[in-house]
C-alpha cells in the first residue's frame, strides 16, 4: 500500500491554471498533488552571445524554492550569495528538456526564459517545473504567433516529466515526498508526447535494480507523461 493510498500506476491529482501573473507573456500554476510550482515565460529580443547571428532562438530556465516551500524554512540562496549545486543542476535540466521540443530556427533570434518557483514542495518539483514550464512556453509562443512575429509554430513536440521509482519493492508512478524519501530506486523521466526520451535520471538509493525493473519504470513514465500532456493541452486550448 502506498502512503497516499494510490494504485501503483496512479498519478497524483494534476491541475494547471494559466494566466497567473499579469506581466509575463506566459504563466501557469501547476499543482501535482501537494507540489505547487509557479511557471512564467518571458520573451526577450536577444540571444546569448554564443548563438548571436546564427538565426537560432534560445530557451533557458531558472529555478528556485521559496523559503517555506518545505517543512522547515530554507535560507534564500540570494542571502548566501550564490546558488546551490542542486538549483544549478535543476535549472539546466529544465532548459535542456524544453529545448528538445523546440525548433529553434522557427523561433528566430529571440530568447524565452522560463522561471520556475516552487511554492510548496512534496516531491517531484523538477518534474512539475518542466511540465508547467512547457505550458508557460506554449502560451508565450501563442502570443508571438498571434502578433505575427513568427509564422511557423516552433514547438514541435510537447514535453513533460514524471518521477518513478521502486518503493517497498514495487515500481510506482509519481513519487510524493514520503515515497521519495524511502524509495530504493528513484528516477526522473522526461519524454515528448510522441514517446521519445529526452533525459532519464535514475539512481539506486538503497537497493540495486534490474533491467526488467527499469523497463517497468519506463512504461509507468510513458503512462504518466501521456496524462500530463493531456493536462497541458487542456490548459492551453
Automatic annotation (TrEMBL):
<dbReference type="GO" id="GO:0009022">
    <property type="term" value="F:tRNA nucleotidyltransferase activity"/>
</dbReference>
<feature type="binding site">
    <location>
        <position position="86"/>
    </location>
    <ligand>
        <name>phosphate</name>
    </ligand>
</feature>
<feature type="binding site">
    <location>
        <begin position="124"/>
        <end position="126"/>
    </location>
    <ligand>
        <name>phosphate</name>
    </ligand>
</feature>
<dbReference type="GO" id="GO:0016075">
    <property type="term" value="P:rRNA catabolic process"/>
</dbReference>
<keyword id="KW-0819">tRNA processing</keyword>
<dbReference type="GO" id="GO:0000175">
    <property type="term" value="F:3'-5'-RNA exonuclease activity"/>
</dbReference>
<keyword id="KW-0698">rRNA processing</keyword>
<feature type="domain" description="Exoribonuclease phosphorolytic">
    <location>
        <begin position="10"/>
        <end position="140"/>
    </location>
</feature>
<protein>
    <recommendedName>
        <fullName>Ribonuclease PH</fullName>
        <ecNumber>2.7.7.56</ecNumber>
    </recommendedName>
</protein>
<dbReference type="GO" id="GO:0000049">
    <property type="term" value="F:tRNA binding"/>
</dbReference>
<dbReference type="InterPro" id="IPR018336">
    <property type="entry name" value="RNase_PH_CS"/>
</dbReference>
<dbReference type="InterPro" id="IPR015847">
    <property type="entry name" value="ExoRNase_PH_dom2"/>
</dbReference>
<dbReference type="InterPro" id="IPR001247">
    <property type="entry name" value="ExoRNase_PH_dom1"/>
</dbReference>
<comment type="subunit">
    <text>Homohexameric ring arranged as a trimer of dimers.</text>
</comment>
<keyword id="KW-0548">Nucleotidyltransferase</keyword>
<dbReference type="InterPro" id="IPR027408">
    <property type="entry name" value="PNPase/RNase_PH_dom_sf"/>
</dbReference>
<dbReference type="Pfam" id="PF01138">
    <property type="entry name" value="RNase_PH"/>
</dbReference>
<dbReference type="InterPro" id="IPR002381">
    <property type="entry name" value="RNase_PH_bac-type"/>
</dbReference>
<dbReference type="InterPro" id="IPR050080">
    <property type="entry name" value="RNase_PH"/>
</dbReference>
<comment type="function">
    <text>Phosphorolytic 3'-5' exoribonuclease that plays an important role in tRNA 3'-end maturation. Removes nucleotide residues following the 3'-CCA terminus of tRNAs; can also add nucleotides to the ends of RNA molecules by using nucleoside diphosphates as substrates, but this may not be physiologically important. Probably plays a role in initiation of 16S rRNA degradation (leading to ribosome degradation) during starvation.</text>
</comment>
<dbReference type="Pfam" id="PF03725">
    <property type="entry name" value="RNase_PH_C"/>
</dbReference>
<feature type="domain" description="Exoribonuclease phosphorolytic">
    <location>
        <begin position="157"/>
        <end position="224"/>
    </location>
</feature>
<dbReference type="GO" id="GO:0008033">
    <property type="term" value="P:tRNA processing"/>
</dbReference>
<dbReference type="InterPro" id="IPR020568">
    <property type="entry name" value="Ribosomal_Su5_D2-typ_SF"/>
</dbReference>
<keyword id="KW-0808">Transferase</keyword>
<comment type="similarity">
    <text>Belongs to the RNase PH family.</text>
</comment>
<keyword id="KW-0820">tRNA-binding</keyword>
<dbReference type="GO" id="GO:0031125">
    <property type="term" value="P:rRNA 3'-end processing"/>
</dbReference>
<keyword id="KW-0694">RNA-binding</keyword>
<dbReference type="InterPro" id="IPR036345">
    <property type="entry name" value="ExoRNase_PH_dom2_sf"/>
</dbReference>
